[in-house]
Amino acid sequence: MASPKVAVVGAGVIGLSTALCITETCPSCSVTVLSDQFSPNTTSDVAAGMLIPHTYPDTPIHRQKQWFKETFTYLFAISNSAEASEAGIHLVSGLKAAGTQMYTRKVADLWELHSEYDIVVNCTGMGAQQLVGDKQLFPVRGQVLKVHAPWVKQFIRDGDGLTYIYPGIHKVTLGGTREKGSWSLSPDAYTTKDIFDRCCSLEPSLQGAQDIKVKVGLRPSRQCVRVQREVLSQGGVKLPVVHNYGHGAGGFSVHRGTAKEAAHLVEECISALQGSSSRAKL
Fold it and tell me: Which residues contact 192 (CB under 8 A, 6 or more apart)?
């Protein structure tokens, strides 16, 4: 079989991580990332990007631990590398170095890709509810503030984590909300004031914060992350699909672990396709 063509649909932290892991695991593949939104306009860009373990009730705990461990090890190595100062953009730069192509494209049906790609990887987050009809997926709305406060060097997380101050490379993220079932992407003025007041009560110096921007994202949540291989069939035509979505608020914390697992599933799909090709020749 010639170089397998793999389409990764979705360009958030999960989609980009998965594309990168596929290029590492299956170097003979031609990988293309397709998405209607790229950074800085993805849900991942709204997130604070803190590595905090989250629990998925219907996912075996040993599997969750493995995902988190692999993600922690990966990010820890970056934090101790020469690229540490650029860690916020390492996924994009890494993909470009690997030769992965990226195209802005709205995918309404995975089947529209079957004539162009051998394998499709679904990393569409909340989009999977409509794209693959996943009724187990639900939004948890999060509203945060991104502010310029370079003097804030340490994070503060209060109580159950609903109020937090997380310094990033360029901005400090102030949060937040957890609104299960809400689809609204419009900022709420009352919520903005409430978040700012809560965070200022923890760190009064934030009263001097400047360039305050309000961001809203929908966390793609379900009882268990879906990292699964599937073969779609239509009119005698088969399309291998690998799913990697439903991380909720824990996407950043397990992105490398689930991406590696998804990449191995892509590897299994390639082996199956090569086996079918060999049998066809015989």
Answer: 143, 145, 214
163-167 and 172-175 strand pairing: antiparallel
| 3-state secondary structure at position 149 | coil
pTM for the structure as a whole = 0.88
The neighbour count for residue 194, using CB atoms within 10 Å, is 14
pLDDT at 98: 56
Is residue 209 a contact partner of residue 192, using CB atoms and an 8 Å limit? no
| Angstrom distance (rounded) from CA 35 to CA 108 | 11
| Alpha-helical segments (H) within 145-214 | 189-202
Integer CA distances (angstroms), 48 to 29, 107, 255, 256, in order = 32, 27, 14, 17
Closest CA to 245 of 77, 150, 110, 153: 110
Under 8 Å between Cβ of 151 and 172: no
The greatest distance separating any two alpha carbons of the chain, rounded to the nearest whole angstrom, comes to: 74
SS3 of 199, please?
helix
What residue type is assigned to position 215 of the chain? K
Mean per-residue pLDDT, 98-124: 91
**pLDDT tens digits for range 184-214:** 999 999 999 999 999 999 999 999 999 999 9
What is the average per-residue pLDDT within 220-246? 95
